[in-house]
Structures are given as C-alpha cells and as structure tokens.
Design a protein that fits this description.
The complex is a heterodimer of chains A (114) and B (107). Chain A is an all-beta fold. Chain A has strands spanning 3-7, 11-12, 18-25, 35-41, 48-54, 59-61, 69-74, 79-84, 93-99, 103-104, 108-112. Chain B has strands at residues 4-7, 10-13, 19-25, 33-38, 45-49, 53-54, 62-67, 70-75, 84-90, 102-106. In chain B, the strands form two sheets. In chain B, strands 2-10-9-4-5-6 form a six-stranded mixed beta sheet, with no helix packed on it. Chain B is globular, with a radius of gyration of 13 Å. The chains are: A mainly beta (114), B mainly beta (107).
Amino acid sequence: QLQLQESGPGLVKPSETLSLTCTVSGDSISTTTYYWGWIRQPPGKGLEWIGNIYYSGTPYYNPSLESRVTISVDTSKNQFSLKLTSVTAADTAVYYCARGVRAWGQGTLVTVSS
Amino acid sequence: DIQMTQSPSSLSASVGDRVTITCRASQGISNYLAWFQQKPGKGPNLLIYLASTLQSGVPSRFSGSGSGTDFTLTISSLQPEDVATYYCQKYNSAPWTFGQGTKVDIK
C-alpha cells in the first residue's frame, strides 16, 4: 500500500537552508499522474500549502514562498524533495509530504533556531 | 489567487446535533475541494474529496456538498470523537489553498 515518509534535519539554523526528502513506497513517482507536494503547519496555526510537482517534473509554488522554495523529484530513488532557503523562526513547523490530496506522510517537525 | 474562507471559525454543539461548516471560494473551483479533519496532536485526515466523495473508512455521518464557489461539510450527528479542527482545501489549480480552519467542540 502507498506510504510516504518525510526525512531530514529536525533543527536548522536561521539563514540556512531547510532540506527535506519524502520517500514513496507502494507507488512510482515517474509512472503515475499525480501531484507530489509539501504542506506545513506552524505550531498552533493552520495548514499552509508550500507547493507540488507534477510527475512530469513541472513545479508549482505558493506565491508567498516562491522566491525561497524548490521542489524536485528523484525518480531513481522514488523520492521528492523540498528546499527552503534563508529560513527564519517563522519557518518552524511540522512539514508534511503528500500525493495529491488523498495520501499524506505523518509529518516531521523542523525547528529553526540557533 | 483564489481565497478560501471557512465559517464559522469555531463552534460548540451538543452530541447528536447536526453540524454544518461552510467553505467559500473567491472564484469558481468546480468540485475540486477536499475536507480534512485534524484532531489535537495529530496530522490531518482526509474526509471528503471532489467536494462530495467520502474517503474510504470515514463514517457516513460525514458528508460534503457544493460546486463552484460554495461548499459545505455536514456532520449529521455529532459524536465526541469528532472534536477536531476541520479544513477545506481547493485543488483545481495552484496554489492549492487551505481555508483557515473551523474548530469544533462539544457543548
């Protein structure tokens, strides 16, 4: 069955780059026509869509984050990744990866602090 | 960009009550709308997709309706385990914006 698992550092220093990877099992990123995306939730706040990437490789980003975000796919590893540059404390959140709207990972907390 | 507005932002109802949450899009999104439930300390759980299709395993007391700009999530008989925050999300085109959430608790 489909599973998505986020991985990456739980602590990132201010001004550095946050990097997360989502490993997909039970489906192939390169052969199915889905959007593979990232969502985040700051502590005590609502959900924020970060962006997604179509299986063909075309990315789409939240306009509020677009200047700092890159989402890419590694079909050889059946993974997709998120990079967020120049992070601040406001980027502290639980980060989720997802396939479309119907399947989500469990989420990973990333704290931005020195 | 299309904005998603949920109402109310919070509500309190009795067990067995019928509860309705509204999500309004600032422009038409056809039926590309999902509803999520998030219980305290947990990740979001999909309830409804394509505005009215119940996700497998979700109790039948949950239902969704609407198309275009106006959508509703209905809980036909509120249960104690339904205490949660509910979010709508549009996904017709990027950005896949979420509503601000509706917190539901028991009176």
